[in-house]
Amino acid sequence: MKCLFCQNTNTEVIETRVSDNKTAIRRRRSCSDCKKRFTTYERIEEIPVLVIKRDKRRERFDRKKLLNGIFKAVGKTTVTADQVEEIVSLVEQSVANEGKTEIESTVIGNQVASHLKDIDKVAYIRFSSVFRRFLDVEEFERELKKLS
Protein backbone atom coordinates (compact mmCIF):
# COMPACT_ATOMS: atom_id res chain seq x y z
CA MET A 1 0.00 0.00 0.00
CA LYS A 2 1.38 3.38 -0.98
CA CYS A 3 1.94 5.90 1.83
CA LEU A 4 -0.56 8.73 1.76
CA PHE A 5 2.13 11.26 2.67
CA CYS A 6 5.41 10.31 0.94
CA GLN A 7 4.15 7.80 -1.67
CA ASN A 8 6.56 5.14 -0.43
CA THR A 9 5.26 1.64 -1.17
CA ASN A 10 6.79 0.05 1.91
CA THR A 11 4.14 0.28 4.64
CA GLU A 12 3.11 -2.13 7.35
CA VAL A 13 -0.19 -2.88 9.04
CA ILE A 14 0.01 -2.13 12.75
CA GLU A 15 -3.63 -2.73 13.69
CA THR A 16 -6.62 -4.42 12.06
CA ARG A 17 -10.23 -4.44 13.21
CA VAL A 18 -13.76 -4.72 11.87
CA SER A 19 -15.57 -1.40 11.49
CA ASP A 20 -18.42 -0.50 13.85
CA ASN A 21 -21.10 -1.41 11.32
CA LYS A 22 -19.25 -4.60 10.33
CA THR A 23 -19.17 -3.70 6.64
CA ALA A 24 -15.45 -2.99 6.36
CA ILE A 25 -12.06 -3.88 7.76
CA ARG A 26 -10.17 -0.91 9.18
CA ARG A 27 -6.38 -1.04 9.05
CA ARG A 28 -3.92 1.34 10.70
CA ARG A 29 -0.74 1.49 8.69
CA SER A 30 2.69 2.92 9.29
CA CYS A 31 5.11 4.08 6.63
CA SER A 32 8.59 2.63 7.04
CA ASP A 33 10.09 5.69 5.37
CA CYS A 34 8.39 8.81 6.84
CA LYS A 35 6.98 6.98 9.91
CA LYS A 36 3.57 8.62 9.54
CA ARG A 37 0.42 6.64 10.18
CA PHE A 38 -2.75 6.46 8.15
CA THR A 39 -5.94 4.43 7.98
CA THR A 40 -7.28 2.32 5.13
CA TYR A 41 -10.57 0.48 4.77
CA GLU A 42 -11.25 -2.75 2.94
CA ARG A 43 -14.83 -3.17 1.73
CA ILE A 44 -16.73 -5.59 -0.46
CA GLU A 45 -17.16 -4.16 -3.92
CA GLU A 46 -20.86 -3.72 -4.38
CA ILE A 47 -22.48 -4.44 -7.71
CA PRO A 48 -24.65 -1.44 -8.55
CA VAL A 49 -28.29 -2.37 -8.97
CA LEU A 50 -30.46 -0.33 -11.31
CA VAL A 51 -34.14 0.12 -10.54
CA ILE A 52 -36.41 0.05 -13.58
CA LYS A 53 -39.05 2.71 -13.01
CA ARG A 54 -42.61 2.54 -14.38
CA ASP A 55 -41.70 4.83 -17.27
CA LYS A 56 -38.77 2.47 -18.08
CA ARG A 57 -36.13 4.94 -16.84
CA ARG A 58 -33.34 3.37 -14.86
CA GLU A 59 -31.75 4.77 -11.74
CA ARG A 60 -29.38 3.38 -9.15
CA PHE A 61 -30.94 1.70 -6.14
CA ASP A 62 -30.99 4.34 -3.43
CA ARG A 63 -31.36 3.14 0.15
CA LYS A 64 -32.06 6.67 1.42
CA LYS A 65 -34.84 7.18 -1.10
CA LEU A 66 -36.48 3.92 -0.03
CA LEU A 67 -36.11 4.82 3.66
CA ASN A 68 -37.69 8.24 3.07
CA GLY A 69 -40.64 6.74 1.20
CA ILE A 70 -41.32 4.26 3.97
CA PHE A 71 -40.91 6.90 6.69
CA LYS A 72 -43.58 9.01 4.98
CA ALA A 73 -45.97 6.06 5.08
CA VAL A 74 -45.29 5.19 8.72
CA GLY A 75 -45.55 8.74 10.09
CA LYS A 76 -47.68 8.92 13.26
CA THR A 77 -48.01 5.13 13.47
CA THR A 78 -46.46 2.66 15.90
CA VAL A 79 -43.81 1.58 13.37
CA THR A 80 -40.32 2.29 14.75
CA ALA A 81 -37.25 3.52 12.92
CA ASP A 82 -35.62 0.15 13.67
CA GLN A 83 -38.49 -1.65 11.95
CA VAL A 84 -38.14 0.61 8.89
CA GLU A 85 -34.38 -0.07 8.80
CA GLU A 86 -35.09 -3.80 9.04
CA ILE A 87 -37.55 -3.63 6.12
CA VAL A 88 -35.01 -1.82 3.95
CA SER A 89 -32.28 -4.29 4.94
CA LEU A 90 -34.53 -7.23 4.04
CA VAL A 91 -35.34 -5.66 0.67
CA GLU A 92 -31.65 -4.99 -0.01
CA GLN A 93 -30.80 -8.56 0.94
CA SER A 94 -33.51 -9.89 -1.34
CA VAL A 95 -32.25 -7.75 -4.23
CA ALA A 96 -28.66 -8.91 -3.61
CA ASN A 97 -29.76 -12.55 -3.45
CA GLU A 98 -31.37 -12.20 -6.87
CA GLY A 99 -27.90 -11.54 -8.25
CA LYS A 100 -29.31 -9.32 -10.98
CA THR A 101 -28.07 -5.88 -11.95
CA GLU A 102 -31.60 -4.59 -12.63
CA ILE A 103 -34.88 -4.90 -10.73
CA GLU A 104 -38.31 -3.42 -11.37
CA SER A 105 -39.55 -0.84 -8.89
CA THR A 106 -42.79 -2.81 -8.54
CA VAL A 107 -40.86 -5.78 -7.11
CA ILE A 108 -39.32 -3.54 -4.46
CA GLY A 109 -42.66 -1.86 -3.74
CA ASN A 110 -44.44 -5.20 -3.36
CA GLN A 111 -41.80 -6.39 -0.89
CA VAL A 112 -42.10 -3.23 1.20
CA ALA A 113 -45.91 -3.44 1.14
CA SER A 114 -45.79 -7.06 2.25
CA HIS A 115 -43.53 -6.24 5.22
CA LEU A 116 -45.65 -3.24 6.23
CA LYS A 117 -48.82 -5.33 6.02
CA ASP A 118 -47.37 -7.64 8.69
CA ILE A 119 -46.34 -4.75 10.94
CA ASP A 120 -48.99 -2.01 10.69
CA LYS A 121 -52.13 -1.95 8.54
CA VAL A 122 -52.38 1.86 8.44
CA ALA A 123 -48.79 2.20 7.22
CA TYR A 124 -49.51 -0.54 4.68
CA ILE A 125 -52.55 1.33 3.31
CA ARG A 126 -50.65 4.63 3.17
CA PHE A 127 -47.72 3.06 1.35
CA SER A 128 -49.96 1.08 -1.00
CA SER A 129 -52.08 4.12 -1.88
CA VAL A 130 -49.01 5.92 -3.22
CA PHE A 131 -47.19 2.87 -4.61
CA ARG A 132 -50.27 1.48 -6.37
CA ARG A 133 -51.54 4.97 -7.27
CA PHE A 134 -55.04 4.75 -5.84
CA LEU A 135 -57.23 7.13 -7.82
CA ASP A 136 -60.48 7.08 -5.86
CA VAL A 137 -62.14 6.05 -2.60
CA GLU A 138 -63.31 2.75 -4.08
CA GLU A 139 -59.72 1.59 -4.47
CA PHE A 140 -59.08 2.34 -0.79
CA GLU A 141 -62.24 0.46 0.16
CA ARG A 142 -61.25 -2.59 -1.89
CA GLU A 143 -57.84 -2.69 -0.24
CA LEU A 144 -59.34 -2.23 3.22
CA LYS A 145 -61.76 -5.12 2.61
CA LYS A 146 -58.81 -7.37 1.76
CA LEU A 147 -57.37 -6.60 5.20
CA SER A 148 -60.59 -7.53 7.04
How would you describe what is shown here?
This protein is of the alpha+beta class and 148 residues long. It folds into two domains: 11-43; 50-147. Helices cover 45% and strands 22% of the residues. It contains five helices and six strands; from the N terminus they run E-E-E-E-E-H-H-E-H-H-H. Strands 1-2-3 form a three-stranded antiparallel beta sheet, with no helix packed on it. The longest helix has 18 residues, at 81-98. The chain is elongated, with a radius of gyration of 22 Å. The termini are far apart. The mean pLDDT is 93.
- What's the arrangement of strands in the largest beta sheet? 1-2-3
Low-confidence stretches: none
The helix/strand series, from N terminus to C terminus, equals EEEEEHHEHHH
Q: Fraction of residues in helices?
A: 40-55%
DSSP, total strands? 6
Question: What count of helical segments does DSSP give?
Answer: 5
Name the shape in a single word. Answer: elongated
Could you tell me the mean pLDDT?
93
Tell me the radius of gyration. Answer: 22 Å
Number of separate domains: 2
* Main sheet makeup: 3 strands, antiparallel
- What structural class should be given to the helix and strand makeup? alpha+beta
The proportion of residues in beta strands is 15-25%
Cofactor: Zn(2+)
Domain ATP-cone: 49-139
GO biological process, one term: negative regulation of DNA-templated transcription
Family: Belongs to the NrdR family.
